[in-house]
Amino acid sequence: MVSKPVHGLPLLPGFSFSDPTKTNFHRNQTLGYRNGFAYTRLPTVGFGGDRLHANQLSQADLNELANKRPTLTFEEPKQVPPSDFIPAHVAFDKKVLKFDAYFQEDVPLSTEEHYRIRKVAIYYYLEDDSMSVMEPIVENSGIPQGKFIKRQRVPKNDHGDHYHWKDLNRGINLTIYGKTFRVVDCDPFTKVFLESQGIEVNPPEKMALDPYTELRKKPLRMYVTPSDFDQFKQFLTFDKKVLRFYSIWDDTDSMFGESRAYIIHYYLADDTVEVREVHERNDGRDPFPVLLKRQRLPKVLAKNSKDFPRCVLEVSEQDVKEWFTAKDFAVGQPVTILGRTFFIYDCDKFTREFYRDKFGLPEFSAIDVSKKPPPAIKQELPPYDGFGFVEDSAQNCFALIPKTLKKDVIKMLTDEHKVLRYMAVLESPIPEDRGRHFIISYYLATEMVTIFEPPVRNSGFFGGKYLGKTKIAKPGSCIDKPTFYGPGDFFIGALIEVFGHRFIIQDADEYVLKYLESNAKDYPPSTILSLKNHFLKRQPTTQESDSGLIEDYKEKKDIETLIKEIQERLKNSDFLLESPIREAFQILDKDKTGYVDREKFFGICKNFNLPVDDCLINQLIRMCSSGEGKINYYNFIRAFSQ
């Protein structure tokens, strides 16, 4: 027991006594912890809980210590240790920002609602900046709900940025993966956190209401007792009595629409209507005979019928103001059944008698609804562009892939290798063109014309082919239906215009006269007469070839000049070998007449590779030919000698 001296007495033995009322004699604690650090302190209370005044500071001492800064006298100051690093997943563990939002979803296949409002909760996890969207489950909603977007870092744009808590606030639109959410509110922790970070939080908004959900909250409608109409009497009176109407549904105004036939049955026993489709053989449609099953059809609905769920419940008497009856069907009148308009054009005999006895109407006359064929469209060919033949250009209009024109095979077989040859001069104001001679060849099998100019030395013109095989139209003829030159137009002195160039016919082959005389009924007599007079006036000339070609050099050059020209042309070639060629012809000419058959002649030329296609050599062969199918090879060999 601790003794306590009496106040005012000296601290001597005998002057102290014990306090019997004290029960607490433990020592005062001088060690403690503050903010996780240990520190020492002076005792303020003695044994038994008595307050000690020796270790207490006065108010003046406390004020001096508050304003005094400690200084070091004998050593350098120590740096304050940095604060411990705390990771984000530790500092923000279980700290989540929650926002209330909604988005609007379109409902395209419903007559009751056009859109719906779906409420969601957006969670932002501060520890890893991830987000998730949860949709609360609504009972009997029929929509899969729950986790709408799983927890992840949500991209903000196409540049790779992600949403941060600084981008979130109330009263903003938030687009996540193409879905736009309207943020309307947040919880208190989210609000305090955003305000602590210096973000001004927008005022909250009201959550949008779903119109269809509000519609379902309306009270149920009240029904009245149905009337006491005797349907059994109607059934017994009109049992098995049906009105039949023939109608069509014209849907040609819409894309891929057509006109289809239907039969409308009206059952008098219970005032029901049935629509059946008329199928034709091989119409390509599925064999479903009934378009509308037998049922009562409402004509006028009540005002509140729009909200009635007809997709699951049948329309009752209270929802319909007026039903379809027999008086709504008449021949010649359209009737609209469930949005589809049918035109009634006829009915059967029983239906006519029923309307006559029941309503006093005259007999219905059938209406002709058969479609008249459209007027034939005259196909006109586009104007001719001048390229190729008119017949070939017209084939592009008859088929996608043009077909080859059908040729007159009989004419090609009969007139094959039949060529009419004429000699003409060029009519031109240019003096250099006045002396030019041309050979015009008309091919009877194809009715085409070629023009060849024999080469003349030192004339200034190359000669050779002047015009390839083609048909020549007469000047002034229609460009779409041109008239082409024919054998009847080539007479002595005729002016032939070929693509702007004018040629005057001066001579012809004797074969031309023979051919025209053998087919005199097909050609003008004036053409045949002009050729006869020309050949009568012509003086005898050198031997003509079997084919009757014109002697291009008969008035200007003789055979000697022609042989010299051939030798001049072939002087640098290897054809000037007279001895082998002469020996080959002499072997065939056993009678030593100087003539060889044409076939044998061309056979030798082929063996020696002689250029018989050359214009000068071809002209020499013509001049060396006789009328008996033989060729004088003496003059021909001279052209190939040195």
TrEMBL record:
Pfam families: DM10_dom (PF06565). GO terms for cellular component: axonemal microtubule; centrosome; mitotic spindle; spindle pole. Residues 93-198, 239-359, 416-520 form the DM10 domain. The keyword Coiled coil does not apply. It comes from the Eukaryota. One of its GO terms (biological process) is mitotic cytokinesis. Residues 576-611 form the EF-hand domain. Its main location: cytoplasm. Keywords: Cell projection, Cilium, Cytoplasm, Cytoskeleton, Flagellum, Repeat. It is found in: Cytoplasm, Cytoskeleton, Flagellum axoneme. One of its GO terms (molecular function) is calcium ion binding. PANTHER family: EF-HAND DOMAIN C-TERMINAL CONTAINING PROTEIN, EF-HAND DOMAIN-CONTAINING PROTEIN 1. This is EF-hand domain-containing protein 1. The gene is EFHC1.
